[in-house]
User: Fold these one by one.
Assistant:
Number 1:
Amino acid sequence: MPRRSQRPACPATQAPVMARAAGARLRIGPIACDGRGLCAELLPELITLDDWGYPIITRAAVPGRLLADARETVRACPLLALRLEHRI
Amino acid sequence: MRAASASWCEAGPGGPPPPGPMPPERLPRLLPAGPAAGPVSLSAHLARYGPPPSARLDQRRRKALTEEVGRAGLTGRGGAAFPTARKLAAVAAGRAAVVVANGTEGEPASAKDKVLMARSPHLVLDGAVLAAGLTGAGKAVIVVHRSVREIIGDAVAERRRARLDHVRIQVVTAADRFVAGEARAVVHWVERGIPAPTATPRLHERGLGGAPTLVQNVETLAHLALIARYGAAWFRSAGTPAEPGSMLVTVLGAVRQPCVLEIAIGTPVRRILDLAGGPSGPAQALLLGGYCGSWTDAGPAVSLPFSADGLAPLGAGPGAGLVAVLPEDACGIRETARVVRYLASQSAGQCGPCRFGLPAVAGQVERLADGRTCDLRLLRRWLGQVDGRGACHHPDGAVRLVRSALTVFAAELRQHAEGWCRGGRSVLPVPPRRPR
Amino acid sequence: MSLAAAGGSQALWFVSRGSGLALLVAFSAVMVLGVAARMGSAPRRWPRFTVGELHRTLALFSVAFLVLHVITAILDPFVTIGWTATVLPFVSPYRGVAIGLGTLAVDLGGAVLITSLVRRRLGFRAWRAVHWLAYLAWPVAFVHSLTAAEGAELRIWWVALVEWGCATAVATALVARLLHAIRGPEPGGHPAVRPGLRQPSERVHQ
């Protein structure tokens, strides 16, 4: 996904830019999801299963060290129900 | 709404408004004053309100009128209360928009939209056409409950003969399901005949047929038609500064005259009950907002204003304008169990947590109603797992209802555990289960 | 023709046949794994994602067998197939129909593979529609394996065993898939927690 260009580092706006850090967030498409459960197996740090086998995202903001794993998990979903959204 | 005991009476605090195109000084604004009768004809409608303002608007006048609607503070009357002017502007930013007037009213206890369409069809259609003018839409689709299909059809034909509107109005009968009233489900129904919400994130960008779509409740459109005639200041002359205007409410349950009323937002709940003939006996609790709303204890609630700010301290809200009164000889847990089982059956079945979680929750609430052992921790855990995990807010509403019931009827829970119950009188209308 | 050249073309012949057989085995395994992934079945101690990943990895791996199979067949001096026949079915002068079926299987399988590689861009519905072609590609490939082979080869006991084994495995998978489609989803959701995984969230909203 293309990233918007960073704002120029201006002292007046430095603090707000740092407060809203760029991040990747996990999202599940609830209609597409069929509770296959692969995502919870591949990314147990961020995804767990409810009592009916459907995934709950326990932590949407993906830490940097898990970003590669998150991408793999997104690719592995057989229904393309998991998405990684980038926000700046 | 099939409740045999309900007679549609529409009342307002004052007498009939002055004739002619003077702005109504008192309520009712949307509904004709006086006893229940048939729909207001086009000529009577024009006599009361004056001619509809031209819906052929150029960019400048579109912007001006949209800003007027913003100043009026009109919010959606379908339950979500989204600022109408913002929605109009968002859709108007696109090209070749479509307006969808949502008169589905899938909520079985609510009758306000049906009554509005049955009594003042032309006001709703004025609003739909005006919304089309404000968004540059080429056509308007009105989705109506089947009980008022004929009335709306006749009204559209009447307008066509009088060449009143600059856009074509298409009438579609709504699906008979609870979630069919959800905005994306309405679009899906019109487009493909499937009354289920879709994953479409932004209807104002891509909706019906891929066009920017404005989905607006019919009551909101009726208010829009009046704001265009009389202005924002007039609209704000009723209601509260934060929540201006009037709204329609359905009052049912243990009141002497269940009916649909038009009230100024912020009217005390007690006054609303009095307008419906007053409670028919001591009231135990109130269900406010709809089947996706909240239970409240009757005592604290009746003195509060019927508005979002007013009801917030009790964790309730005006929602879709339902005020249901639970009498002393009815059991709140049993009623909740019936409603939740109905809500579970009305899941579109697209999202696992709703499809499997709601029936599980309903099962637990039924156990509570029957006095069998129920693991409250498990119920609360499931409520947490279902809340907010569907594509639409259907499961959220059911969770809200159950959570409020667990709070308000805590004493009844203890009684049930000890083996006795207030009574089994059914007050809330729940449609019978039909085979799929 | 010199002895070396004859020996070389013999080698090409064997590699072509052998890689074809290996390809059939791999393709059959991919089909079985694909059905297993779709039905959510997995061996007890294996996480579910292994089935899906194995299906994908094996499919990509079979491309190597395919390339070997096709190139050795084309390069074989004893038969004229022609490079066009690698993509266009039924144009080969040598045993047009039998080879053509193989080409058809490659075309169908290739469509499935390529759409799977660009799945995210394609969208789920389009991807799934093309993926159904796999159920057509396998029987076409199987019939190719029977018709393109010499009768004598098929009478070798282990070749016949492989052919039968693959057919049985894929047929079983197909029946299971049909039953799953007919029976519909389970009423209570999917089995919740697999052994060895963390328990569902204990977070309860009060």
Note: Chain A has a mean pLDDT of 81.
Number 2:
Amino acid sequence: MSPQVRVITLQVDGKEVSARGDQTILQVARENSMFIPTLCYLNGLSLVGACRLCLVEVKGSPKLQPACVTRVEENMEVSINSERLSKYRRMILELLFSERNHICSVCVSNGHCELQNLAQNQQMTHVHFPYRYPKLELDSSHNRFVYDPNRCISCTRCVRVCDEIEGAHTWDIMGRGVDLKVITDLNQPWGNSDTCTGCGKCIHVCPTGALAEKGKSVTEMAKRRQFLPYLTLMREGRW
Amino acid sequence: MTPEELGEIAATQQEAVLRFKHRIHVCTAASCLSSGSDRVKQELSKEVVSQGRDKQCQVKGVGCMGLCVKGPLVSVKPDNVMYQNVTPQDAADIIKSMDASPVGRLECATDQPFFRRQVKIVLENSGRVDPEKIGDYIAAHGYEGLLKVLTEFSPGEVIEQVLRSGLRGRGGAGFSTGLKWSMVSKADSDRKYVICNGDEGDPGAFMDRSVLEGDPHRVLEGMAIAGYAVGAAQGYIYVRAEYPLAIKNLKTAIRQAQHHGLLGTNIFGTTFSFNIDLRLGAGAFVCGEETALIASIEGKRGMPRTRPPYPSQEGVWGEPTLINNVETFANIAPIIRNGADWFARMGTEKSKGTKVFALAGRVANTGLIEVPMGITLRDIIFEIGGGIPEGRRFKAVQTGGPSGGCIPEESLDMPVDYESLKKLGSIMGSGGMIVMDDSSCMVDVAKYFMEFCKTESCGKCVPCRVGTYQMHGLLERITDGSASAQDLATLVELCDLVQNTSLCGLGQSAPNPVLSTLRYFREEYRVHIEDKACPANVCQIHSAREVPA
């Protein structure tokens, strides 16, 4: 913390909390054990504010603010759990479920999936929108990993971890709108990739079963993320 | 270039023009060009020579004259005669008619409301100067504004002028231009940028294209003045690759301005240096959003990012960046030349000056118009636009493209300014204006714009990516007769979600066409859903038996 950063107080859901001026609403909420749902956010990766699940109400602002990127301010009054927010969050989750193929019972990550956990946590009982069920081809060309785009929610965590932490930039995105797709090496089979180092970080940051290790059966693909904060600290020389 | 040289070029040019007794202007902007104005111009030039009148008659290509529906257009100065639908075969008759009475069969009245009711600031040179000749622009007081600010004004005084003029961003949202300039000038950095947003993407809009094609130097001058005011030395014009003529004319203009020392180092012998480069957009609507545009200029995928930080603080290459629309920059030189008060006298209390609109759809005079703020929509459509052709009934006018809304007959007497259009559930937008008559189905219109947003969504944030897809699906169900009342409720819920939770302006405004048609034409939705019928007979409704239960 540089000496210029001020210590401030703000209210989150009516509770007074302290924070450093350079923190985000999400960081402060987590410090105080207050839950804000997130999907694209992952501690240690750059912030994109894309999933819109962490939107919160800030008093005096007409627009909802993404907690992951919004910095705290002195005397800010934040509401993170209003009825309106819960409704929006449920609908966003429903939209994600309707977009691709998320049948939990046959998924390697069943029981360890962030999308599944959030749906339960947000009391999503059913999906009001028609399912798209696009038929996307599975890429099992890599000798240790498998990529199933049907389970992908386009959060781009894999893209960011590969670029920012591993430095390989094997993953990227192509296409627009619902046709957006995460790809390896200019849409070539993953197994032929010259850039992939096989480090497996993408597997473990993926919130769903879209990226998995080969040989894992239903429910067996639990993700291990401990490495990420450690690597980030190493990079920033704060260790 | 010294101030004296600028005056000299202007004087020589004006003299050269006066040597010709008749000056024949042929529109060579995209619309007339597509109906063959280049051959008309060629033929006219040939006829001038073969009839031995090349000493008295000058033929030159100029920018858009506005009445695109009647193109190719030819105007004769100083006789003030205008010809419409000119073909190469008419060239001989036109040249013969010089010093005689005009060719009656081609004549286009110049005193009709279409021309009379317009007030031209942005388009003052359009249809008059040759966009490929810098001398023509200089003769029309071009670069005087730049000379004035560099020699008489401090950067702060320039911003004060722009603030006082009341000019607001012409890209759509209507943010105060002076305020934006002052923010960038206050941002702390020794490297700043000026960007001109020419990624005009609304269906039916062609204002920026016409300005860039017909009077490119005006935009360069506006940008250079902005560069001086905010402390930037580099500008970018982001123009879509689908505008080849605009790109060609801009390239020529930049080269000429550099050659004359009006861009480059030490402009007019001052310490101010400014350069402009072109960046071409590859056909993504979302790149009109400022943060996506910046990403695209940096060579990245054109995707918006969350704001703040706003570009005025962190823009291109992370440096403070001023982004204004083509039309905004085109207003700057006249404001400087004629003073802020002159500009502020036009328009309404909160919306000053004029606005260029691209009039399209079911209206007699489709084309490009510039009108003072505060004029009513009725005047635009029925006076200037000449009303609805084929004796049909007016139904709605769509302003603001996919982010705007449809305005019905009963609201036509509202004055056109940023606030009233917003109150009506539409937006000023960049200036697209699509007129619809009773042969249009409003649900179908909403579906069309939703399909546009669905295809153009960049896919970054979930509400826009999947929400527009689901909304489009619901609208498809309504228009094919398979929707239920519950579907309409879901559609309204999705509108609310996408509007309030999307990351950028594309998503936040994508529901507007649906919301505004629901507001004014709810009955049409009801008829589609309950009676399984399309009142305008546009939608292919399945008969009740085919509807899946």
Note: Residues 512-530 of chain B form the longest helix (19 residues).
